[in-house]
Structure formats: C-alpha cells, structure tokens
Amino acid sequence: MSQQQIAENLERAFSQKGFAEPSVAELKALSGVSMRTLYKYFPSKESMVVGALDYRHQRYLALLEQCAQHSGLDATLAAFDVLGSWMKEHAPKGCLSVNALAAFPDNADINSTVERHKQQVIDLLAKLSGRDDLSHALFVLHEGTTTAYPILGESAITAAKVAITTLFTTNSTSY
C-alpha cells in the first residue's frame, strides 16, 4: 500500500473518529497496514495527522479548482456549492484542519500544515473570484460557513452565497 493510500485511510479515520479517540493501534487497523508500514511513512500520531491533512488539502483544492471553468461571481458561487457538497459528504462535523488545531494546539507541524492550507484557500478564492480585494472577506465567509454548517446545514451555504453576491455588487473594495 502506498503512502498516499495510507494517508487517505488516515484522513477517513480522523474525519469519522476525531483526533482524541483513535489510538495508534486503531489507526493502524483502519489504515489496513502493519504497524511497521504505518510507522515507516508516519512515525508519530502527529505525523499521521499531517499526512491526513495534506491528503485532504489536495482533494479539496482539486475540487475548488474545477470552479475555474467559470469566472468572477459565478466561479465564487460555484466554489461555495462545492463547499456545501464537501461539508455534507466529507465534513459534517466541521473543518478537519480546525479540529486538528484544537486537538494539537502546540504542534508546529500541524499548525504550519493548516496555515499553508488556509493560505492556499485564500489564494484560490482570489483567483476564482478575480477579486484580490475580496479574498479575505471571501475566506472569512468560507471559514464561517464551515463552522456553521454542522448546525445550519445547507442554509449556511445559502447565507454565504447571499453575502457573496452582496460583496460583488457593492462598490467598496477595502477589505
């Protein structure tokens, strides 16, 4: 089994069980490999978290990149449609990156992995929207939506899309 396949299995395990509950022995079983193989690629639980987050990051950004077939407001609204589908299917308990930060607040590797992910989301939202001036506002809406989704469900996506449309139609560009 490849390192990427193990990371995929770890991502699924952490998404379903959180970070506190699964022991390394349980993660080994959920990964479908021997302890030796697991430790070969991921020598600690924290490195397993980083591997899972990196794998998830690649998947999520690839989905958002598909929105580039549109432009401006349409691409941005499509990105939030993708976010809604992602939350429903892959993150009903909220953002895995934010949950990892909460579980491992002092781990530098996890912190830098999450920061890199979030910065790339900001950059991609700027690219999709064609509005660098709105990138931080769009990111705040993105993050607020991931936080609100477990409580509000699809209405969090709808509310974000209303706010995005309003942002695009105002003349202010100082965010």
Automatic annotation (TrEMBL):
<dbReference type="Pfam" id="PF00440">
    <property type="entry name" value="TetR_N"/>
</dbReference>
<keyword id="KW-0805">Transcription regulation</keyword>
<dbReference type="InterPro" id="IPR009057">
    <property type="entry name" value="Homeodomain-like_sf"/>
</dbReference>
<feature type="domain" description="HTH tetR-type">
    <location>
        <begin position="1"/>
        <end position="60"/>
    </location>
</feature>
<keyword id="KW-0804">Transcription</keyword>
<feature type="DNA-binding region" description="H-T-H motif">
    <location>
        <begin position="23"/>
        <end position="42"/>
    </location>
</feature>
<dbReference type="InterPro" id="IPR036271">
    <property type="entry name" value="Tet_transcr_reg_TetR-rel_C_sf"/>
</dbReference>
<dbReference type="GO" id="GO:0003677">
    <property type="term" value="F:DNA binding"/>
</dbReference>
<dbReference type="InterPro" id="IPR001647">
    <property type="entry name" value="HTH_TetR"/>
</dbReference>
<keyword id="KW-0238">DNA-binding</keyword>
<protein>
    <submittedName>
        <fullName>Transcriptional regulator TetR family</fullName>
    </submittedName>
</protein>
<dbReference type="InterPro" id="IPR023772">
    <property type="entry name" value="DNA-bd_HTH_TetR-type_CS"/>
</dbReference>
